[in-house]
Amino acid sequence: MFEAKLQQAGTLKKILDAIKELLTEATFDCTDSGIQLQAMDNSHVSLVSLNLRADGFETYRCDRNVSMGMNLTSLGKILKCCSADDVVTMKAQDAADIVTFVFEASNQERVSDFDMKLMNLDQEHLGIPETDYACVVKMPSAEFARVIRDLSQFGESITFSCSKAGVKFSSTGDIGTGNVKVAQSSSVDSKDATTIELQEPVTLTFASRYLGLFAKASGLSERVQLSMSPEVPLVVEFKINDIGYVRYYLAPKIEDDDGN
Amino acid sequence: MFEAKLQQAGTLKKILDAIKELLTEATFDCTDSGIQLQAMDNSHVSLVSLNLRADGFETYRCDRNVSMGMNLTSLGKILKCCSADDVVTMKAQDAADIVTFVFEASNQERVSDFDMKLMNLDQEHLGIPETDYACVVKMPSAEFARVIRDLSQFGESITFSCSKAGVKFSSTGDIGTGNVKVAQSSSVDSKDATTIELQEPVTLTFASRYLGLFAKASGLSERVQLSMSPEVPLVVEFKINDIGYVRYYLAPKIEDDDGN
Amino acid sequence: MFEAKLQQAGTLKKILDAIKELLTEATFDCTDSGIQLQAMDNSHVSLVSLNLRADGFETYRCDRNVSMGMNLTSLGKILKCCSADDVVTMKAQDAADIVTFVFEASNQERVSDFDMKLMNLDQEHLGIPETDYACVVKMPSAEFARVIRDLSQFGESITFSCSKAGVKFSSTGDIGTGNVKVAQSSSVDSKDATTIELQEPVTLTFASRYLGLFAKASGLSERVQLSMSPEVPLVVEFKINDIGYVRYYLAPKIEDDDGN
């Protein structure tokens, strides 16, 4: 039997927003340590890794490991039926082909339950090596989302250039070139601060489209962390309040010899 | 000569919102007791009944009975031209083929008048028998609209099950099953209360699509009243502040012998 | 070298909103007295005239006259990248084929620059004779926009009838006729006042579509000025706070002998 209770159904809504444009279906692996999801996006370009720790839930019980394959469009319809501040409980019997979501309104006069059919999905678990990154940038997630949205208008790629002074995001296309420079903040304590831990300057180029999809997770956290090293996938991480994180991995574009 | 004046043009806008997706054209019957509209929806499945009492208007005069057939799309264009707090006057000469709407802004610097051509529409008046219902539910109209919207995502039908404890709304479809239980409120005085007057428990199933169209009337009133008896059409009633009501009638679905 | 700095990038955004549906491309003529744009709309029916005085900018320098032909869709993409309260600087070298926009966020932690390719556009400068108008109406621009939007639903033309008492806007079409009467205000000092300077009563008819496009400039100014004389183009003018104006010219429709 699996049963997990979360105080704020809104967290589930935001998690779905963070993955639903990358994945149409996904398997949530539930163990006694928590819930994990790991999957390549539909085009097999980027990797999504979601981790929700058991201790982050109000109550959590998982007698046997369960893998729940869900259609994310169906999940979206069910999550539309709850308010952000409903209490939500997810339940499944061992070896069940159904997961149940129970939503309780804060005034307790409305209780809804939704049964969703589960799917068997192929899964391949990818080992993600722990890496020491040459550069780690922490910045407001809204600022990150905005820079990506703005520059995506210009070109299919965005170049991240990190130095002690700050990060420069650049994109070039038919209509011209855009550069957005975000300076390292003088005060590092504010939640609006941009901070940079730098072993060496890094310049990497990524596909605008995927960066834009990662930025959909901005609702989950006020802060985003970008970890970069030469020739290694970028990691974009959003913490999920007290319970876990979602991370996206995206390989940099390799420039041709002639610089194109 | 017919002339009726209403302090708040917004009431007319909301009445139109409540019927315009069910009816493309409608005849407003004006007598010295008020204005009435009764019509089957475009697909001849549900019945709409609107009643505006003469004494609910600021001023009201109707020398001879007039039947004004209106195209509701045209009426919508005219009502877009007034503000919710404009004073509105409707006027027609006896046997006229035109109705005039006059809108006066509260600051009195803008006065607009719109002449709309009337239409001759076929009409059949249906006797609606007064019935004693087995179950009458009163609940917040926003809550009703929300339940219908949520469950309409799942299936083409929604089942209403009423008992002393509360009302359960259910729907089943390809992705699974949803149940929303609204409990009878302990305090019945609040405008957010759900109250149930029950002669006998009732379980009836209705087409989601029509329930969704009725719920468009939620803007008219904070409360909705659902009256149900076995094998008899559901009545969904929204009071219109001090002036009348709009009621919708919808026959329950008959289940096949095999339960489908 | 050309360089002009504006405290509020929002002003540029609103100017673009005021012209982008009339023009797809436009030439901004920069001289030491300021920036001017004059162009027939895409269908060669109306004329747009924009004037931004050098002294209205925070700093302004123009060593040699420059004509900058811009694609307004591209300009729109660039202006999407700034906040309304960013400081914006436009720069171009003499005889350059590129213009640079620099946006500085008020917290100074983000600086963006965008290079846009310029275009060579054919230009014909039209002499606009200074005229003494028979009637000049000043009214709130939001009210003007609203009247035009409302009446555009009815017919392709809107008739403006100006007298001492006020202005009547009228339109007739398939569904009927609409008249909106805006009275001259008793108090003329309020920014909501409608005032009329009248040499002689004027009645003129204009194409709804173009009036609607001019009304897009309402964001630029709380007030609009309509100048009319018989058989002469209407002038619709919106002041741009302390820096200039945008004016639209539209010839009245000529009625046929039989009144159609």
UniProtKB/TrEMBL annotation, chains A, B, C:
NCBIfam families the UniProt entry points to: pcna
Role description: This protein is an auxiliary protein of DNA polymerase delta and is involved in the control of eukaryotic DNA replication by increasing the polymerase's processivity during elongation of the leading strand.
GO cellular component, one term: PCNA complex
PANTHER family assigned to the protein according to its UniProt record, in alphabetical order: PROLIFERATING CELL NUCLEAR ANTIGEN
InterPro entries given in the database record: DNA_clamp_sf, Pr_cel_nuc_antig, Pr_cel_nuc_antig_C, Pr_cel_nuc_antig_CS, Pr_cel_nuc_antig_N
Principal subcellular localisation of the protein: nucleus
Highest taxon of source: Eukaryota
GO molecular function annotation: chromatin binding; DNA binding; DNA polymerase processivity factor activity
HAMAP family found in the cross-reference section: DNApol_clamp_arch
GO BP annotations listed: leading strand elongation; mismatch repair; regulation of DNA replication; response to hydrogen peroxide; response to methyl methanesulfonate; translesion synthesis
Entry annotated with the keyword DNA-binding: yes
Keywords assigned by UniProt, alphabetized: DNA replication, DNA-binding, Nucleus
Subunit structure comment from the entry: Homotrimer. Forms a complex with activator 1 heteropentamer in the presence of ATP.
SUPFAM superfamilies reported in the protein's UniProt record: DNA clamp (SSF55979)
Ranges where the Proliferating cell nuclear antigen PCNA N-terminal domain occurs: 1-124
Family, as annotated: Belongs to the PCNA family.
Lineage: Eukaryota, Metazoa, Ecdysozoa, Arthropoda, Hexapoda
Protein name: DNA sliding clamp PCNA
